[in-house]
Amino acid sequence: MRAEKKQVSSYVAYNYNARSIVGVWINGEGGILNVSAYGGGGKEVCCVVLPSYWRPGLKAAVRWEEDGDWLTDDHGQIVYRDGRRVYVARPPKERTVDIPPYVGGEGPEMGRFQIYFLPNDEVAVLVSTSYPGSPGNPHPYPKDPRTN
Q1: Which residues, in sequence order, are CB contacts of 40 under 8 Å at separation 6+?
Q2: Alpha carbon distance 136, 8 (integer Å)
Q3: Which has the minimum average pLDDT: 35-44, 51-60, 64-73?
Q4: Coil, strand, or helix at residue 20?
């Protein structure tokens, strides 16, 4: 049996939620990738290793950490210790999701690994040469509903 040919791809994320994301890991790899609330794209991070050619059953374990909060007292005032605000991190979240067929190319023409952080802690991924809102990409670019 021949070994499956692999390809290295950068990854980028899009956030459809009101809380920023401060860390992203794909299949246990990665780390820092800040994704603003209702934003994303623009900044790609290296790397995720994928089969060069899509096949049924491909999955990705996506782990992320949302921006935390400042600790407040019973009156809603921010708590300070040693002259500094106290930051409370949020626990990481994780989903394992199917990787749909690659869009726009395979092998050397394979696109970026794109992660979509959707409402209610849902996650979708796509390997594509197109961006959100463009032909061939089923996802619109994130919009802040408070500004519509």
Answers
A1: 12, 13, 14, 15, 142
A2: 22
A3: 35-44
A4: coil
- Rg over alpha carbons for the chain, rounded to the nearest Å, is 18
- pLDDT, residue 77, reads 93
Strand order in the sheet with 45-51: 45-51, 6-15, 112-118, 122-128
Q: What was the pLDDT predicted at 32?
A: 66
CA 80 to chain centre: 32
Q: Mean of the pLDDT values across residues 11-32?
A: 89
CA-to-CA distance for 121 and 114, rounded, in angstroms?
16
Residue 46: cis peptide before it, omega within 30 degrees of 0: no
Left, alpha or beta for 116 (phi > 0: left; psi -120 to 50: alpha)? beta
Enter the pTM of the model: 0.86
Is pLDDT at 40 greater than 80 in this prediction? yes
pLDDT of 90 over the 80 cut: yes
Tokens at 78, concatenated: 């921010």
Dig out the tokens for 85 from the structure. Answer: 């605000």
